[in-house]
Amino acid sequence: MSEIVREIVVVGGGVIGLSVAWRLAVSHEVTVVDPAPARGASWVAGGMLAPVTESWPGEEALLDLGAASLDRWPEFAARLDVPLLTGGTVVAAVDAADAAQLDVLAEHLASLGRAVDRLTGRELREREPAAGPGVRSGLMVPGDLAVDNRELLRRLESAARRAGVRFDRRRALGVESGAVLLDGGVLETGTAVIAAGAWSAALHPALDTLVRPVKGEILRLRERAGALPLTRTLRALVESRPVYLVPRAGGEVVLGATQYEAGFDTEVTVGGVRDLLADAERVVPGIAEYGLTEAAAGLRAGSRDNLPLVGPLEPGVLVAAGHHRNGLLLAPITADAVYAMVAGEQPPAPARAADPARHVPTRR
Amino acid sequence: MSEIVREIVVVGGGVIGLSVAWRLAVSHEVTVVDPAPARGASWVAGGMLAPVTESWPGEEALLDLGAASLDRWPEFAARLDVPLLTGGTVVAAVDAADAAQLDVLAEHLASLGRAVDRLTGRELREREPAAGPGVRSGLMVPGDLAVDNRELLRRLESAARRAGVRFDRRRALGVESGAVLLDGGVLETGTAVIAAGAWSAALHPALDTLVRPVKGEILRLRERAGALPLTRTLRALVESRPVYLVPRAGGEVVLGATQYEAGFDTEVTVGGVRDLLADAERVVPGIAEYGLTEAAAGLRAGSRDNLPLVGPLEPGVLVAAGHHRNGLLLAPITADAVYAMVAGEQPPAPARAADPARHVPTRR
Q: Model confidence over B185-206: pLDDT tens digits?
């Protein structure tokens, strides 16, 4: 077994902070600082692990990073004993512009050697009978996974506790070399890892304009008697608005997500719910018969280029934030990358594009 | 002061049961049986006290009953120290059929000597600036009131407790002359009053087919910065679907209500929420900017003729149920009617139409 070499403080107990802390706890004493661990944006997420259907020309580095993290997911999930949904993703287009956008995506993926199956509306409905006649065409992406984000967070927190991670419920006010400033104290530390999602910007001057909150509203639905069940993750473009439906064990379906940039606002709005329901119904008409059990909003941590920020900011201070819509997907590779950097080693190659030095001068 | 003459058991602690119990406690020992008092359908309600805008040709007895109860509301509210919204109701019509339906209502009310003001779309928007350009015409009903149903329930419960009413949290299984059967006991009683709303049907054979659950979904919204505030109760017909928006102190707005007859189902559905939001937005476009803070479903107690059932079923057993959409409005006159019957006196004249003897043979 590895020896305990020094104390590390991870600021933020969402999926990134918990994954990093759990990974580091193999060989370090780790403290996670968070007033409400296993919550935040990760709690509201849909749980898709879908780098391919999220990809877009110009974002090849993000696709490589996501694909490398997806490769790590089966082992990551197995160690946490959390099940994965393995049915792949169908992507549906509703109007002609949506279909044209899927053409661009399919051609882009083909140019990268990642061929996907184009589907007619009828072929798509054969694979996902809950899809309605308004679906014009689609894609099938077999390799995508999905996970129950809340189950994952619970498992991660308890795995971290079992590995010896301590939790400090005070609120972090700032991070500097050698110290994490808390509301009511200071934690002196060899290494601090800022993993506070959208709240990271306020914790270190180098992150000030690099991370911003991107509000997302998500609904939780429940199948009711008579409603056609959804069999796999369904993404769609509805008049250019992206929407997704992720089925969970037990008949739950997560429907998301809106995107607004409006500061640290987490109130669910009438307009957001109306759009999600209307768009979902265009793709899956039977959704009207589902129960609506929860509406919630979270704040993704947006970055300038949609790539996260994973790397050193100054001696003894690392950042692992800005994961935007991909926090769950990128958790395993982010944890591996931070672990390598703390050990003085090179992070996995695809993670190098996430170095914050691409935006700001950093002191190593 | 009156003397305590005998013990009365009221089955059901919603707005009707609590009002009856509070009224009877002046001169009787009263026990309310309810596992969750001050909840039920009354908790989910909108709080409109609006007999005129609810009226329809053929339902004159209900209008008389509602009007007589509305007259009692200012004193009822003052004794409970609960504020009333007194701005009246505007009723909006969206399409031509909706406008024609308002014409029928206006002519009907005029024939009863209850003139209301017909409004053009522009005149309606002058009275309620939050109404949008899609409103075609409308009515203004100055006398309608509204009350915060949850505040009312809290005040009623504490007023009843202060008046000496006792609460038994066991579930009632049945009512017969001289006894209320509970899950885990029997309460022997001189008089039982069945005021269990939609659940009343199962408590006495005479009510078996007379009261049925009518599901209603209601949303609670919250004004946000930038959204035009609603100044008074707004009802509307949107392609024949009724919808209402009731403003509350503090920026809350209650938006209701769907109507389904599907048994004792209280799950909020996607289709119900979608309809409420879409219809409300047709009338008040700015609603999209509001926060959505709660979605809930309740079960109204429907009767065959929309009139409640208030009166004796057999010696020592009275019913006060079947109030459908009008439980809050009809609470004061129902309490007065039950009080009179228990005292062996005639109930107020308009309450005589609610006698259950109109449907079933009853033994006095």
A: 999 999 999 999 999 999 999 9
Q: Is A315 exposed, middle or buried (0-12, 13-18, 19+ CB in 10 A)?
A: exposed
CATH code assigned at A250: 3.30.9.10
List Cβ neighbours of B108 (8 Å cut-off, separation of 6 or more). B55, B56, B57
A220, A270, A293: which to substitute to probe chain B, counting the most B Cβ within 10 Å? A270
CB contact under 8 A, B274 and A281: yes
Q: Does residue B219 sit in the same domain as residue B126?
A: yes
**Residues B208, A180: Cα–Cα separation, whole Å:** 68
- Check residue A72 and give its pLDDT: 98
Q: State the pairing for strand pair B317-321/B191-194.
A: parallel
The number of CA neighbours under 13 Å toward the Cβ of A13 is 27
**Is B299 in the same domain as B309?**
no
Residue B3 has pLDDT above 60, yes or no: no
Confidence of residue B57 (pLDDT cuts 50, 70, 90): confident
| Chain centroid, CA B12 distance in Å | 15
**Taking an 8 Å Cβ-Cβ cutoff, which residues of chain B contact chain A?**
221-222, 224, 267-274, 277-278, 280-281, 287-293, 295
Chain B residues inside the 8 Å CB shell of A280: 270
Q: Amino acid letter at B325?
A: R
- Does the residue B58 lie in any domain? no
- Residue A333 lies in domain: 2-43+150-210+305-363
pTM of the model: 0.91
Specify whether B221 is located in the same domain as B254. yes
Q: How many domains does chain A have?
A: 2
Cβ neighbours of B291 in A, within 8 Å:
267-270
Last residue of a domain, one of A276, A303, A330: A303
pLDDT of residue A3: 44
Q: Do the chains contact at B288 and A271, CB–CB below 8 Å?
A: yes
Q: Whole-angstrom Cα distance, residue A280 to residue A283?
A: 5
Which of B218, B270, B279, B282 to substitute to test the interface with A, most A CBs within 10 Å?
B270
List, for residues A310-343, the tens digit of each pLDDT value: 999 999 999 999 999 999 999 999 999 999 999 9
Quote ipTM for the complex. Answer: 0.87
| Pairwise CB contact (< 8 Å): B287 & A293 | no
| % of chain B with per-residue pLDDT over 70 | 98
Across the range A283-302, mean pLDDT stands at: 96
pLDDT tens, residue by residue, B230-278 = 989 999 999 989 999 999 988 999 999 999 998 999 999 999 999 999 9
- Determine whether the interchain pair A292/B268 forms a contact, defined as Cβ–Cβ distance below 8 Å: yes
**Residues in chain A whose Cβ is within 8 Å of chain B:** 221-222, 224, 267-274, 277-278, 280-281, 287-293, 295
Q: Last residue of some domain: A303, A325, A349?
A: A303
Distance CA B214, CA B206 (A): 19
Same domain, B203 and B333: yes
Q: Is residue A182 located within the same domain as residue A197? A: yes
Return the pLDDT at A6. 65
Of B89, B81, B51, which Cα lies nearest the Cα of B247?
A: B89
